[in-house]
Amino acid sequence: MKIVLLGPPGAGKGTQAKSISNKYSIPHISTGDIFRYNITQMTPLGIEAKKYMDKGQLVPDDLTIDLIKDRLTQEDCKNGYLLDGYPRTVAQAESLKNALEANNEKLDCALLIDVPREFILDRMTGRRVCPSCGASYHIKYNPPKNGVNCDECGNEVIQRADDTASTVNNRLDVYEKQTSPLVEYYKGENQLLVVDGTQSINDVFKQICEKIEAI
Ligand code: ADP
Ligand code: AMP
After folding, report:
1. Over the Cα atoms of the chain, what is R_g?
2. So what's the pLDDT on residue 141?
3. What mean pLDDT comes out for the span 153-171?
4. Which CATH architecture group holds 2-26+79-213?
5. Using a 6 Å CB cutoff, which residues line ligand 2?
6. Active site members
């Protein structure tokens, strides 16, 4: 199964991706997590990506497309994958489509987690993440069990550098301008599925499973 998760920053893609990946046994590939890992390792890719991420801008297509092309050729992607945060531009979507078509493959669906802008600031400024495994928490809606440490791996959760109110607003503008056209793009490909992302984390997951199992 090959799935793309769509939705604005803060929609719940990372949160749902963990559950989808576990239930359907497909790797969760988050370009944001890959960039953040490269930043902590201070690789050339991380140093370059950080310039854009700190401002809430997209990392240029050429860097991001090459990164994903390489990742999708790895052994664990043989039976499918779940892309979270990729594609984010029409050029990225076209590149993915071409790479799949070259192997006579296609996506099973692009799943939009639909959340209106007025919900997002609260979700993103209250988000806490595990710097080690990438698990996403929220101080009000989904806190770690002891309030401080990741439930999965025990590391102390932190606030992401780009989850401040000013950067969040910029990221939402970037989403509307550069990424939201992908909703029409995947509608045109007959691959778009939509779930209501304003419901509870469990209820969003239920909707997602129903949609996936009806394909
Ligand atoms: P994305 O990966 O789309 O940027 P996340 O999965 O990190 O978003 O979720 C953003 C924030 O919102 C996190 O703090 C997460 O715990 C919280 N969250 C996710 N889904 C819901 C939901 N359905 N209801 C309330 N809060 C949610
Ligand atoms: P995310 O973790 O998905 O919220 O992404 C965090 C940041 O990483 C974004 O604001 C971008 O700067 C960068 N990023 C992640 N995925 C992409 C992508 N597909 N294209 C360009 N930039 C990306």
Report:
1. 16
2. 96
3. 94
4. 3-Layer(aba) Sandwich (3.40)
5. 9, 31-32, 35, 52-53, 56-59, 64, 85-86, 88, 92, 162, 171
6. 13, 88, 127, 160, 171
